[in-house]
Amino acid sequence: MKKIKVGVAGYGVIGQRLADGVALQGDMELVGVADVAPTLSVKALKEKGMPYKFFTAAPERQAELEAAGIPVSGDLDDLVRQSDIMLDATSAGVGAKNKLLYEKYGKKAIFQGGEKNTVADVFFHGYANYEKGVGADFLKLTSCNTTGLIRAVDCLDRAVGVEKVAITIIRRVADPGDYHRGLTNALQIDKAPSHQALDLMTIMPHVEATGILVHTPVTHGHIITVVLTPKKDISVAEALMYFDGHPRIRLVSIDEGFQGNASLFRYARDLGNPRGDMYEIAIWRDSIVKSGRDIMFAINIPQEAVVIPENIDAIRASMKMQLTRDEGTAETNTYLGIGKWKIS
Amino acid sequence: MKKIKVGVAGYGVIGQRLADGVALQGDMELVGVADVAPTLSVKALKEKGMPYKFFTAAPERQAELEAAGIPVSGDLDDLVRQSDIMLDATSAGVGAKNKLLYEKYGKKAIFQGGEKNTVADVFFHGYANYEKGVGADFLKLTSCNTTGLIRAVDCLDRAVGVEKVAITIIRRVADPGDYHRGLTNALQIDKAPSHQALDLMTIMPHVEATGILVHTPVTHGHIITVVLTPKKDISVAEALMYFDGHPRIRLVSIDEGFQGNASLFRYARDLGNPRGDMYEIAIWRDSIVKSGRDIMFAINIPQEAVVIPENIDAIRASMKMQLTRDEGTAETNTYLGIGKWKIS
Amino acid sequence: MKKIKVGVAGYGVIGQRLADGVALQGDMELVGVADVAPTLSVKALKEKGMPYKFFTAAPERQAELEAAGIPVSGDLDDLVRQSDIMLDATSAGVGAKNKLLYEKYGKKAIFQGGEKNTVADVFFHGYANYEKGVGADFLKLTSCNTTGLIRAVDCLDRAVGVEKVAITIIRRVADPGDYHRGLTNALQIDKAPSHQALDLMTIMPHVEATGILVHTPVTHGHIITVVLTPKKDISVAEALMYFDGHPRIRLVSIDEGFQGNASLFRYARDLGNPRGDMYEIAIWRDSIVKSGRDIMFAINIPQEAVVIPENIDAIRASMKMQLTRDEGTAETNTYLGIGKWKIS
Amino acid sequence: MKKIKVGVAGYGVIGQRLADGVALQGDMELVGVADVAPTLSVKALKEKGMPYKFFTAAPERQAELEAAGIPVSGDLDDLVRQSDIMLDATSAGVGAKNKLLYEKYGKKAIFQGGEKNTVADVFFHGYANYEKGVGADFLKLTSCNTTGLIRAVDCLDRAVGVEKVAITIIRRVADPGDYHRGLTNALQIDKAPSHQALDLMTIMPHVEATGILVHTPVTHGHIITVVLTPKKDISVAEALMYFDGHPRIRLVSIDEGFQGNASLFRYARDLGNPRGDMYEIAIWRDSIVKSGRDIMFAINIPQEAVVIPENIDAIRASMKMQLTRDEGTAETNTYLGIGKWKIS
């Protein structure tokens, strides 16, 4: 079988992980990655011995790349030409500009949550609306919080139906290593409703959603609390059963030692995952409570890696590699090693 | 009129503020404060020139107090004897022991949220169940989060009735100056339901409540999001109107510059309040959203000072200074200067 | 005696405290404060009942001030005209622009550390070079770290002479309430030598200085470690004696409970100081160690308030209110209540 | 050649990394690791498929291990019996107790910095005193800060001689994932001199050392500033040359993007190192400054992994695998892949 050729534009926090994820897919070939300058991530690529080809997205800064000794395999045009589909993980707003290039060469592309919805034909989530993405030329992924949240909501929705959700996003404000943003000893609130609630309604229009987002000065994962009104009354045990059946959801508990987002960050490092990443969201067993018919629970979102599987799903949908949600996500999961674990 | 004589046991974060609050009441007299050692707070009392008399709660440590030059007006027994009622703000568990002393001298007492409910005859909140406290000998106050939360829930409950609430407590993990506890770059989750939800149901048994608590590494105020199901559908404007009418609730907005808990902490300092404290909770206008009949909003809880007014209310109730909620809380508010402000 | 009329331009973190400090001086009159918009600090001024007159520095934004209900006593020109001398605490760079206005009306002015040295005739420190400022029209104060550092270095320099210093500044990265800057779980290093070392050499040209600055994610005070080579060998006890004799230096110890910058922040709040501020730097007794002739010690810098006394000194020097360092600083200290304390 | 059999007691932050480091040595065999309970690290070992054998150090808690499904290969006695030498990475104080067991079976052991010096025959550092450890039965390693610090000081000492050092340790207060310790918005100072300065003098008795330690609320690496008086005056360029020649020192710069400790943490993750670890200390090129003959510079200490190489060195010395510092450390470096990099 001919492998699908994938290029990655933007080699930052998300771009690096997308490249690693694609490289693990047996039916895909990573053509290379592109960025504009010899950032620390690009320097690390060099120190590792260039496992991926590097293309420059800013040929006018060639001198900087040479000074840093980065081998360059061509420019962004070259990468696009050599690829069947592009994963665009550039800074918000750049994707819309890059789209012109993708169109010029007649290539498909997947954009990230930071871009405007109008950049894409389909606002995509691997589990919630895979079929909408099948064959589409331009897909936009949901952001990290929304991606993780929808996994859980879609899971219960398919099981018993969901009427409405009210979410509180306790957002990590920066990634490890970020110096361009941060909060010090402060919680910061955004105007409600949060965009994640609105985005959930775009992807799952039959669910009513609202929410409040509060930024917190930490780097290792968002925590979302969800107050969810199911269409049919379910017990905590049933909810656990449904979540347990989802390959991209881990059930964890405080008693096991998972005291918060930092426990999960450490656990993933101890697992030896590349970069200490985790693709799965976690739901705390001992967070699940009921109030009337409503069910309330807390999710951990590993913001750096959580969107990688749904991005791979998007390639599968767009390139018609698999035509259904179950087949597409299963293939992604297999290659990423998702679902093999069983903590307790 | 004879002033009610009040003693304060425990001169830490809460005890200091209780003393300041009592000293402001025109119909009360602060007999003095007691603590076990020359802590920094006691040293600050001395540097200020001993505005309050100090009684030692650990006569065996007299030498330490002398070494620090703290003038001692007697021991805890003396303080209790000279007082009509004691505000006990000692560390959790000590209050139960002190109660024996209060009983010995036939004095009433008010305990804080850290004590077990069994220490008191009444679990008290100035606005939610003032009348229950009238004439009672031993009252226990709700904790800081519960105190602030109940203000808001009781406010809507009296207006339109409340069926149920699901809360997310984004808890500040330490007070400014704390070195004995703290989190670094981590969110920590507690087993659900949070005790604040259970406590709310004890005070307001007709409301169903549940909740999840997440500790965050900040010091300037908790933020609580509330998903509240009113008995009667109300608009956001109506909710604003009800909140605006409550003397111990400030309505603030992000547009004004109140970006989070730290803005409120700074604002209170800029006001010149003693210790930069704020007695009122704040509710963000731009956090209030609806989902079906449910109404969702975010509260800021200034944890160091929020319980002071309800403690003063408790004295009024216990000593039968005022017999009704409206009269008792109004008197407290007047002396504390609550309700004079009008930001926008 | 006719009081010196002082205006304050910029009503932020520093401007508010300058206004409070001037208001305490028996021989000065605070004409008023100016700012460009109804910030939270200006709203707090209003909620306090306008103890100071407010002048607008941006008449074109008059509508915003009216909407916020801020009484306006005139514009910045009016304030300058009514003042004998201006304290300029505007954002870095604005002072240079304002200087044209001060020159237009023939008024003197004091600028803060953020401005370029060229804005002023004299780079000023109340203790290190008071006499240089006497009669000067435009003075620039040292920044908060440099101001505190020079107090300690000048203290030893006058006692025994100082040859050189090597400093490590552990810098708080934001003030309480700041949302426009911050670090999350990261230390950040600046290129060496730090500007504070260079500034020290400008003020004290006979001392050789170098240093490294590291930003840390906290808000309650910088800590500076100093490795100081005195001209004459002194013991730790002698150093303590010299520091103890300086009115603007507090000696504290870990054993007393001063575990770090946050202890001092809390202590100042407990003292009931306006805004919980502290004018004095603190030096930890138990941080002072020797290595050969070198003496090493750690200073706490309360960044919000530390420069206030030296600013008042600058007014005294510039206006020739006192002609010598000892007289000028003593007068400032008396009115600010500095030096009355004695912790241990 | 027969491989040296190594056991690891304690499978926490350090123990895990020691096990990984030993497993990479071509001339050593990792017999297995021991711990007392199914901690998250042990659960991660299981999820990875048990690459290392697990021995229980608390047979009485066997039921917990079984409940967690951890395959157990024996108890701590078994591990000791099967090993030639033990790396003891248990909690401080436990090592002294374990020593009895090692003596019982006539096995050598390496202890970590948390144990008392008396537990060992030699207080060891791979570069500073390798030869002292040759053939010794019980060695104690320096702590993470001291290990990294000594690398740099020893490097200059061998080149030009070092007379004295004054250090400021800006200490990260917790490791990623720690919930049992932490600071929130506070710097905390220890009594001077810091133990690291004293330890340096124990290892390098010809150098005079003192220092101050300040805890900061971050998790990704300590930063130490060093004021070092060399015996012979050297230029910054010479210092750079000496540091550059040391295999376990990386020279980095702010201009490259290394803005602080978090940049290095991220860089190591991007490198794909196991757990995102880094064995090398980093020295910022642009932190090196001079004051008279003194040279000042800043070091980054990656606290989780920095001591691993020196621990491996200790095995080599104790087991007489190599008899000299140069041969021993070179072998360790080769197997750990240290010194292959060249960032700029």
Short description:
The structure is a homotetramer of 344-residue chains. The first copy, chain A, is α/β, with parallel strands linked by helices and 344 residues long.
Primary descriptors:
Dihydrodipicolinate Reductase, domain 2, seven-stranded parallel sheet, 2 domains, 344 residues, homotetramer, alpha/beta, Rossmann fold
Oligomer: homotetramer
* CATH fold-level name of the largest domain in chain A: Rossmann fold
Helix/strand-derived class of chain A?
Answer: alpha/beta
- pLDDT average of chain A, as an integer? 96
* Poorly predicted runs of chain A: none
Helix content of chain A: 25-40%
What does this protein structure show overall?
4 copies of one chain form a homotetramer. Chain A has helices spanning 13-24, 40-47, 62-67, 76-82, 94-104, 130-133, 144-160, 195-203, 236-244, 261-270, 308-318, 325-336, and strands at residues 4-9, 28-35, 54-56, 85-88, 108-111, 122-124, 138-141, 162-172, 188-189, 208-216, 222-230, 249-252, 281-284, 289-291, 294-301. Chain A is of the alpha/beta class. The first copy, chain A, folds into 2 domains: 4-142 and 307-336, NAD(P)-binding Rossmann-like Domain (Rossmann fold, 3-Layer(aba) Sandwich); 144-301, Dihydrodipicolinate Reductase, domain 2. In chain A, strands 8, 9, 10, 11, 12, 13, 14 and 15 form an 8-stranded mixed beta sheet that branches. In chain A, helix 7 (144-160) packs across helix 8 (195-203). The first copy, chain A, is globular, with a radius of gyration of 20 Å. At the A-B interface, strand 8, strand 9, strand 10, strand 11 and strand 14 of A face strand 8, strand 9, strand 10, strand 11 and strand 14 of B.
